[in-house]
Structure formats: C-alpha cells, structure tokens
Amino acid sequence: MSNIPKHRQLPDKENRLFKELLTQYEYKQYKKGLKAADTILKKFPNHGETIALKALTLHSSLPFPMTVAGLTKQEEAESLARLAVKKDITSHITWHVLGILAKTRKDWDEATRAFAMARKQDSENIPLMRDSIALYLHTRQFSQAVAARHQHLLLRPTLRSSWTSLIIAHHLNGDMTEGIEVYDQYLGIVKNDGATSSEKAQLLMHIITMCMEAGQWDDALRRLENGLKDGVLSTRGQVTQLKAEILMQLGRESESEDVWRALIEQNPDNLSYYDGFLRTKGYEIRKSVTLDSTSKIVSLLNSFAESYPKALAPRRMCLDIARGDEFRDLARAYLVNGLEKAIPSLFVDVKGLYVDLERMKIVGEIVEDLIQTLEKDAGLHDDDSKAPPTALLWAYYFLALHLAHPAHPNPSYDRSLQLLSTALKHTPTLPEIYMAEAMVRKRAGDILGAAKAMEEARLLDGQDRFLNCKAAKYWLRVGEVAKAEELTAMFTKKDIATSQDLTDLQCLWFLQEEGDSYRANGNLGMALKRYQSLATTFQDYEDDQYDFHTYCLRRMTFSAYYSLMKYEDQLRSHPAYFKASLAAINIYTRLHDDPSLKEEKLTAEEEAERKKAAKKAQKAEQKARKAAAATGEGKKEDQPVPDEDPQGSKLLKTETPLDEALKLWKPLELLASSRIETWTTGYQIYIRKKLYLAAFKCLLQAHDIDPRDPNLHWEIIHFKQTVSAVPDLAEPVKMTTDQLLPSLIPSDADLAAYNANLLSQHSSSPAHILGAAKGLSELDTTRPIPSSSLQAIESTLSRLAAHDVPPSVAIMSSALKLMKELGAPISSIDSLRDTYKSRVPLASVFESDEELKRRRREALEGEEVANGVKPDL
Amino acid sequence: MDIRQATIDDFLGMQNANLLNLPENYTFKYYLYHALTWPELSYVAVDPRGRIVGYILAKMEEEPTDEPSGHVTSISVLRPYRRLGLANRLMKQSQEAMVAHYNAAQITLHVRKSNRAAISLYRDSLGFEVHVMEKGYYADGEDAYGMRFLFKRKDEESKAST
Ligand SMILES: CC(C)(COP(=O)(O)OP(=O)(O)OC[C@H]1O[C@@H](n2cnc3c(N)ncnc32)[C@H](O)[C@@H]1OP(=O)(O)O)[C@@H](O)C(=O)NCCC(=O)NCCS
Fold first, then answer.
1. Distance from CA of B42 to the nearest CA of A (A)
2. Which terms in the Gene Ontology molecular function aspect does this entry carry (chain B) (predicted)?
3. Given B7, B28, B78, which is nearest A563 (Cβ)?
4. C-alpha to C-alpha distance for A695 and A361, rounded to whole angstroms
C-alpha cells in the first residue's frame, strides 16, 4: 500500500466510496456512481482516478440514439477524461478511461496510445492487455502485437487463446515459420484444449495455408493428410482444393487431377475447379488457348457435361473456349436449349462472350436465323419436333438486347424496340419485356422513355423489390428525386425518411445514384451529402473490423480473420468508393473554380418547391414532437440530435474544397493506382493547389498506364501551358519538367500538330474526339476564346455524329457542356445539338428544354393515372 | 455463372444484392459476423465480370439445441438471373457444407406466406416442409412460414443402402 503515491491516496471513507463507485459502474448503476464520484470530488477535487471514473460513468450513461442533452454530457465526459490524466499521469485507470473514450469515438490512434500508457503503469492487467492488443492489430502495429502476445503467453501459458493468438500475430507480422513453430509447441504443451472439432479444423486449416504461404509444400501436405486421417478435417470444399493446389506445386499432376475431379463431383458449377483440372493437363484457359488445343479442351469439358447433365458450367465454358465452326455449333445448341426452356436469363448468361466481337457476331447470326425458322413455324431440331410457342418470344427478347448491347458495333435501337413491341403483343404482362425496353431506351439516350418503361415493369410486379429499385434508379437518372423516393419508400421503414433508412442500411447504389441525380440537377450540396455518406459508409466498414480482433480468436476462425485483415487493407479500392469519390472531387474542383456555386441559385419554381418541402418537413416534425410529448418524451434536449446539415449546405460552403477533395483522393492513390482516372483526377486537384510537381507526377503515372488516354492528352497540354505561364517557377519544378516533360510531349513539337495527331489516330473514338476538342480549347489560352478557335472546336465536336463513329450520348452531352463553358453562342450550341439529335433521334437529352419539361410532366402525370391502380404491397 | 463459397470480398456484393432483392436488410457487420463465424456456409453466384448475382447467407443456430441446426439468414438472386437454377444450387452447396463441417441434422428458414417463387423452390425443388407458422413475423406484419429440411444421416444412408 505504501507505494501508492500521495496524490492518489484517499482517507478510509472516500476510499470506500471509491470502491463502491467501481462496483456501481460495473453494475451499470450510473446515477449512484455519479453521486459517489461527486461526493469524493467535493473533498478531493484533484483526485485523478475519481475524475476518470466519473468520466467513464457519465460516458456510459449516454443515451442512444444520441440526444441534444446527451451531446453536452459527452463533451463533459471527454474533458473530464483528459483532466484526469493531467491530475494523475501515472495511473493506469486514468489512461485506461481515456483509451476507452477514444475507442468509442473510433479514434483508434489515440486509443492505442492511451492503452499503451495504461499498460506501462500496470503491465500484468490482462483485460487491459487484450484491448491493447486488439488496438495494435487494428492499427496494424504487428510487431507490438507480437510482443504483447508473448507477454500474455508468459502470464497465461495454459490458456489456448494465448497460443493461438500468438500464432496469428506472427502470421500478420509476416513471420510464418515462427507462427508454425508456436503451433507445434502448443500441440506438445496444451493437450486437451477444449476446442470443438470445427474449431480444431479452423486452426489446422490456417496452419496449412501458412505452410503454403511459406512455400513448405511437403509440410503442408503432411499436415493436411494427417488432418483428414484423424477426422479433424472434412474433405468437403476448401481442404480438398488446397490439396489439389499443393499437389500441383509438388509437380504431382496426375494425383492433382484426381483431386480436382473429386472437387467437380462436389460442385460441378465451380469454374475454378475446371480451371484447376485443365491446368493439370497443361492448359491455362484464363491466359491463352492455342488454336489447336481448343478442341481437346472442349472434349474434356464435354465429358464433364455428360457426367453431370444438370451442371451449367461445363457447357457454358465450352463456349468461352471453342472457335469458328465448332463455336457456331455449340452456341446454336446452347441457344436453342435456352430458348426452348424459356430461360429469361439466357441473354445475361451469353453476353459474357461479347468481349470477343467475333463470337458476338456469330451469336447474332444464329439468333437471326432461329427467328426466321421459328417465324416459319418450323422446329429447331433435325427431327420434326416443334418448338414451344414461347421460344419465339424469348428469341425476340434476346435479339433486342443483343442489338442494343454496348459492344455492338452497329447498334440498332429502332429494330430492338420493334422486336420488343412484337414480343409484347404475345405476352403483354411480362415485366422482362418492359425491362428490356427500358434498357434499350437508356442505351439510345432516351432516358425519359426508359424510366417510363421501367415503371411499367414495376407496376406489373409491385411485390418485387428488384423492379422497384430499378424503377427508382431510372427515375433518378432523369432527375426525379421525389418520384424515386416515393418508390423506395415502399420497401423502407415507415417512421423515418427513406433516404435516411437507405443510408443507415448502407445502400451504396442509392447514395451514388441519388447523388448523381442531385448533381445533374445542380443541387451540389445534396450531391456532396450523398457522396460523403457513401465515403462515411466505407469508414464504417473499416471500423466494423474492430470487434473481430477478439471475436475471431474466440471462435478460432483464423483464416477468415486473416483474409478480413487483408481485405480491410484495400477496402477503398472498391469501385463504389472510387466512383463516389471521383464524383465528389469533381464538385469540389468546380467549387474551387467558381465559389459562386456555393450560393444556391434557385429558379422561382424551385424556390416554391423548396418552401413547400420545408413546410411539409416542419409539419411532420411538429407532429412527431406532439406524439413524443404525448408519451412524455417531449423535452427538446431529449430529442435525438437532428441532422446538422440536412441540405448539405455546410458541405457546399466549405472553405477548403481542394483539401476535401484530396482527403477522398488519397486512398485512391494507394489502392486504385492502376486506374488511369485516379491520376487524371489527381492532376485536377494538384494543379489547382499549384503543387506542380505532384500534378506532374500524376501525369507521368497516367502516361505509364495509357499514353493515348484522351483526358491525359488535354491535361498534358494544359500542364505545359500552365507552367510556361508561371513567371517564378521554383527551380526543382523547372528542372524536373524540363527533363521529363519531353517524354510526354515532344518539347519542340508544334502543339497543334500534337493535338491533330491524336484525332487522326483515333478518328472514330468518341472519347478521343472530345479529348482533342478539349486539347484545342487548352491550346488557345485567350479568354473569351476567339471565334476562330471556337469554330475549330465545334467542327471537331461535330465529328461525334459522323457515321463512322459509334454514337455516344454521354460524350455528346459532355461536348455540349464544353461548348457552353467556353461561352459559345446559343445558335452554334443549338446547331450542334441538332446534329447530334439527328444521329441519335431517340435521345431525349437533346430535346430543347421546353420539350424536355413537357415530356417529363407527361411521364409523371401518366404515372399518377397509372398509380390509381397501384398493386398492393 | 460461377457457384462458389463466399470469401470476405464477396460480402459487400452480397449486401448489394440483398438490398436490391429483399426488404429484410442488414448492415455489413452482420454479414461479417456470418463470414467470420461459419466461413464455409455462405455461397455466391458470380457473373463473368465478377459481379455477385445471387447468394445464400447461412449460419448455424447459436442457441444450444439437441442437434446442430443450420439456418438460412437470406437467399436471393437478381431478377435478370432468376430461373436459371442458381438458388437451387446455392442452397444445395450450403446444405452439404452444414453437414460436412458442422454435422447439421437439419436446416431451417423463414419465408413470407405470399412468396410463391421461394416457397415453390423450398418445397417442390428442395423438399422442405412447413413446420411452424409465425404470425406477424415480418416488419410489415406479414406472416412467415418456418420451413425445415431434415438431413439424412450418414449412418442412416449407409443402413439404407445395405
Ligand atoms: C426465390 C428466388 C431466390 C429463386 O431463385 P432462382 O435462382 O430463380 O431459383 P431457381 O432457378 O433455382 O429455381 C428452382 C426452382 O424453384 C422454383 N421457382 C423459382 N422461381 C419460381 C417462380 N417465380 N415461380 C414458381 N416457381 C419458382 C421452381 O420450382 C424452380 O425450378 P424450375 O425452374 O426447374 O421450375 C428468387 O426468385 C429471388 O431472389 N426472389 C426474390 C428474393 C426472395 O424472395 N428470396 C427468398 C426469401 S425467403
């Protein structure tokens, strides 16, 4: 007792109270606890550990969901915790509390530091140690985790988890051999560890993968076979797959072949099993297949198709392999089977082949031919059997989607629509046909018509959430946020806004699409709000792993845990994060260029609508408050904390848009470095920050990926023009660019020729045509841009409608936007729009604003009529 | 369409498919809970571009029961990929895994009374039977059928074959 420092000692009475306080906290008697703390503090206001426990008690009593009053208490708890450490810096309690609070705030770094400090004061405190280890793992400080695990093992050598956790810590630290050694020691020491058989299996499986990772194939195989022999492992699934792979590595192909066969027997629809099997025969089908081996592979696959007549995979894989006439025969049989069985998913199944245009062409020819036969009412087989009547319907449907597929060199939307309307005459109530129509119209640029068609599909099967989501998405694509939310609300919680529920449920597609919709409508605040919610969702996904650092050790699911750690490390390479970040960064750079965008410019109409919505919200709130008052929860401070930024205006008004952009971009730099947009977007941020070297590095990275990328192209010109106009360019920048810029763009090149060159080399690529036009706009830096340059740009852009250029509605729209940005006269914008319209007559985006408004009203009103007979949900 | 055991990086795709198909949704952590407790039981159907078009999210009953019992938390297939036999295959793979790895004696699930497609899949294709009706089981008040399928025990099987 004597080594308790003076400032921590309490007289008996207070000491008793302090002990009570600890118990009260443990039993969740927070009110009593707070009272006890206050009694002690009245006499000893500087007693750090009491302050800490008060902070902890207060913090634990916070309401959930957080209320206004709760927020103040939370702040109080936080500042008490900090004060406590100041008052007693050598107490494990004060640090521990600080750590716990930081942990609930998800400030992992601060929590890790605080727990480490706490452990310093009390190095044998096991619970403290466990939390601390979890934090080391969470913050990827693996060598510290290993050290702490060693200490844990010394203190608790008979505990199973002391050993197993050390193994996994070694593994995460990259030291497989050490981990495996610990495992073997453990087997010798802890005889009866009480693990269930599936837990034993999980551990052994993980050890085997560690051996494999360390390249110890023989050892891996020995352990695996012993595990099977002892009945610890089951032959089903992964174990057997590991065995097949190990045998391959050991060069024992024919044994491996048998094992792959056994796997195919277990699951004849697993593609990697066939890949593995074929590898034992020397075929790497995901890499390349030589012409003379295709027939051999096809016949191997066919024998599986015969052994497993119900399996889809071997037949479908044949189509990926076969070529020429063999392909034609197999594809025909495959299509006939699908059409006769009336499988709606036949097209989505087959379209995977369209990465190869030759195969795509053959499929198209076959289906045209089948339709001709079916229209003549003839059978599809050599005998005189007849095809079922639905076969023709599904053949029309197939061909319609085929003709509108984005890979199709000559899409023919009109014909697609004709085919679908014929199909509709057969079966007017099939949602699939309307879905297909929506798809075709979308591709043709008629997004309004597409939304209407998807809505028709939805109305035919109101119970199906998939159709509901699709219809909502299509409404969002035409900017009808309210209509879309009306639909999504049919499947979300009734007591909160549908957008809130979908945010809580981490519905990424909705956040992205609604953000895009707001962005297209010019409501940049709400767009940012949705994109930022999506980014926050990824933060939540990252934080989610925390509990599993301890949970998995208990459940002994080590392999799954190990892959979770690896997965979380590259979480933000996910395409959803990528897409939302780029969209938000685009807004932030625009805000930087034109701060006036931060002030909303509403038309009178929008203003009125906004007011109406605000009134409605206010009424709803009042109603909710009244209801709450009735149940006695009416006090304002007991209300849940309201959304601080319901309209996204705080986000919009940021003083530092480029820093916000950079925050979103940083993970991409690390995790999406192979995507060229990462770099072309990074350039946009850095050049505005006038960080010329960083901007230049982005260009170099992009150039490594694709030197002819159309965005990179004009950015290079932009960069050259920008740095040459900077009077006092820093010496290192000058040196680097002088040295390296010539590798991107010939230094003495006539820039105009450089630009013309891109166009002539990619004369039928829409993206390159736009890139070249942008290049022209960068070549002439005078603003307003002289009409001679503008004319050149316009004539380049008009090529987008040329007949040898596949029509791209999206790029045409960007072209019109570019013209607007450059301040082109209305007349020339209109004439360009007309040119586009005649190339893609269905594209609703090229209608005049009035016409668009009229059609939109019509579409929605049509809906209201239709909604009169809304199907029950 | 590839049918394989789900790995960690499939669960976001699963969450996406679930949000598109069904009104019963879960945050990601609940998916992780499945993935990190019974890694062998969840399966996915994947299209050639790697997109998850169907999934089964499955677990073992945590409450101690007489015999280990598997449970389907969620199963669905994106509409354009339905009627291809994917749900059927996903279910069978998961069932086999329940028996092989957890010695399951049965598998249970809930289904809306009005969900004809799903009921037909479970009852007609897979041999499940309704063992209980739960009134107002779903958030919107709809009733659920509790359905169940008893696995044949290995020893019974071998008895039957001798
Ligand atoms: C239920 C669902 C999962 C079925 O998926 P699926 O991959 O299309 O099903 P399968 O192709 O494997 O069908 C197997 C069998 O189920 C039955 N079945 C499936 N869909 C059916 C439907 N719409 N109507 C009648 N029976 C149907 C059939 O017996 C079918 O065999 P068959 O095609 O040889 O006639 C799918 O419709 C779906 O995702 N629906 C929305 C989500 C949902 O309801 N999930 C179930 C929650 S409990």
1. 12
2. protein N-terminal-serine acetyltransferase activity; protein-N-terminal-glutamate acetyltransferase activity
3. B7
4. 43
Residues of B in contact with A504 (CB under 8 A): 27
- As a dihedral over the C-alpha atoms of residue B17, residue B18, residue B22, residue B24, rounded to 10 degrees, the angle is -170
- A835 domain-assigned: yes
**Domain B2-160 in CATH 3.40.630.30:** yes
Name the pLDDT band for A623 (thresholds 50, 70, 90). low
Provide, as residue numbers in chain B, all residues whose Cβ is less than 8 Å from the Cβ of A352. 47-49
CA–CA min distance B9, chain A (Å): 7
What are A121-172's pLDDT values in tens digits?
998 899 899 999 999 999 999 999 999 999 999 999 888 889 999 999 999 9
Copy the structure tokens of residue A456.
Answer: 């028709």
Q: Which of A89, A122, A155 is the last residue of a domain?
A: A122
Nearest to B15 by CA among B26, B2, B7: B26
Q: Please, are residues B137 and B81 in contact by the beta-carbon 8 Å criterion?
A: no
Q: What is the number of domains present in chain A? A: 2
Residues belonging to chain A: 873
User: Three-state DSSP class for A682?
Assistant: helix
CA–CA separation, A519 and A500 (whole Å) = 19
Q: Return the best residue to mutate from B83, B84, B86, B126 for the ligand 1 pocket (most ligand atoms within 8 A of CB).
A: B83
The CB density around residue A200, as the number of other CB atoms within 10 Å, is 17
Q: Among residues A122, A154, A184, which one ends one of the domains? A: A122
User: DSSP characters for A380-428?
Assistant: SSSSSPPPPTHHHHHHHHHHHHHHT-TT-SS--HHHHHHHHHHHHHH-T
ipTM value > 0.85 = yes
Q: Which of B19, B79, B82, B110 to mutate to test the pocket of ligand 1 (most atoms within 8 A of CB)?
A: B82
For ligand 1, say whether the CB of B117 is within 6 Å of any of its atoms. Answer: yes
In a domain, residue A261? The reply is no
Atom of ligand 1 nearest to the CA of A465: 41
Span between the terminal Cα atoms of chain B, in Å: 38
Does residue A802 lie within any of the structural domains? Answer: yes
Contact between B21 and A269 using a beta-carbon 8 Å cutoff: no
What is the arithmetic mean of pLDDT over A568-589? 97
Asked whether the predicted pLDDT for residue A451 surpasses 60, the reply is: yes
Question: For residue A136, which amino acid is it?
Answer: Y
Q: Which residue among A235, A344, A493 places its CB closest to the CB of B83?
A: A344
Give the CATH number, domain containing residue A71.
Answer: 1.25.40.10
What is the bridge-based pairing of β-strands B52-60 and B43-46? antiparallel
Does residue A812 form part of some domain?
yes
The answer to whether the CB of B73 is under 6 A from ligand 1 is no
Residues near B140 by Cβ (< 8 Å), separated by ≥ 6?
Answer: B23
